[in-house]
Design brief:
The chain is mainly α. 51% of the residues lie in helices and 8% in strands. It has one domain.
Length: 85
């Protein structure tokens, strides 16, 4: 088990060295007096954490039967309120 862990650690070190070497590679300029153009392989930042904007859901108008039930219920409440006075 110990040799396996040592092998994994050595593999990780080799990988980290190769990755660091690739990330430090620059693109040379065609003009020799200008210098390099920057890093060859930019680091991937991953997906953003911003909200996904979505249009509002369309408003669904209530059916005439529902409107009638609401009006009947409100009329019943008003009648109960007036009877309590």
């Amino acid at each position: 088990m110990g040799s396996w862990i040592k092998g994994l650690a050595a593999g990780h070190r080799r990988f980290a060295e190769r990755l660091a070497d690739r990330q430090s590679t620059t693109v040379p300029s065609q003009d020799l007096g200008y210098g390099d153009l920057g890093v060859s392989f930019s680091v991937w930042a991953g997906p953003g954490r911003d909200a996904i904007l979505q249009p509002p859901k369309p408003e669904i108008p209530p059916s005439p039967q529902i409107l009638q039930r609401v009006m009947d219920r409100e009329a019943d409440w008003e009648a109960d309120w007036e009877a309590a006075d």
